[in-house]
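Attaching the record inline, Q. Sequence:
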Amino acid sequence: MRITRDAADVSHVFAQGQADASLALGYTHALEHSWQLEFNRRVMRGELSKLLGPAKLETDKLMRSLGIVRAAQKQFDALPAENKQLLEAYAVSIDNFHAHSSQALPPNFPIARAKPGLWTPADSLGWGIMMALDLGGNWGLEFARLSAVKSISNSVSLRPWGCSLHGCNFIRLTTLTTRTFSSGN
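Structure, as predicted:
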């Protein structure tokens, strides 16, 4: 395997197979993104208050109650052996980098008085779950939009604003409801 950087300082991984690519990718991520890995690991595990103090206890409680780590471990346990091996190679290379590298850790670590924890294969899956939650983070807005459309659809034709029960241009709907409420209707 080989890891190179181009003129824009972008890393490129060249490997003979998926296992080597997983090892190289884990090493590269640890080299370039140690703090992000550690911070993300702590977020999904509900361990932010260990770094940032009691102000993050509620966040930690929420993350633990969501069961991200349990769900990720369950997903990992159900994977085929080949997939498990790739995630294990990725995790091992991150942990080996942190254990044996002579490179100084990013300044975030000493500032937070932290050291990298062990990255597990399930942590990679857990972060995937976290990203899915983040991408679905507008569920409240989606529900509000659907409720607004349903509540005004009986008295107002929404077609001129590009709306239906399946969606609409929310900016236009907001303008419509603002006009409706401000005009006393």
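The CA atoms of residues 81 and 139 lie 35 Å apart. Confidence is low (pLDDT under 50) at residues 157-163, 168-185.

More tomorrow.
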